[in-house]
């Protein structure tokens, strides 16, 4: 995880590269993408949790 100094450097670099007018839009797009990624990851985890022991034994038999 980046420290505070690294975050400041990244922020200043983004400000220089994209400019102050586009930075809020880029932040929103990044936040939206991150939220979609987290929701997809949670969905995959929940799908794995929903598997019943019967499903697991069938998978093992198919692999053998």
From TrEMBL:
InterPro entries: TatA/B/E. Coiled coil: none annotated. Keywords: Membrane, Protein transport, Translocation, Transmembrane, Transmembrane helix, Transport. GO terms for cellular component: membrane. GO terms for biological process: protein transport. The keyword Protein transport applies. It is found in: Membrane. Pfam families: TatA_B_E. Its main location: membrane. Residues 47-64 have a biased composition (Basic and acidic residues). Residues 41-64 are annotated as: Disordered. It is a single-pass membrane protein. NCBIfam families: PRK14861.1. This is Sec-independent protein translocase protein TatA.
């Amino acid at each position: 995880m980046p420290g505070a100094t690294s975050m400041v450097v990244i922020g200043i670099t983004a400000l220089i590269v994209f400019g102050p007018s586009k930075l809020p839009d880029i932040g929103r797009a990044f936040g939206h993408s991150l939220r979609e990624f987290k929701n997809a990851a949670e969905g995959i985890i929940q799908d794995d949790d929903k598997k019943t022991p019967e499903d697991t034994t069938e998978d093992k038999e198919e692999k053998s």
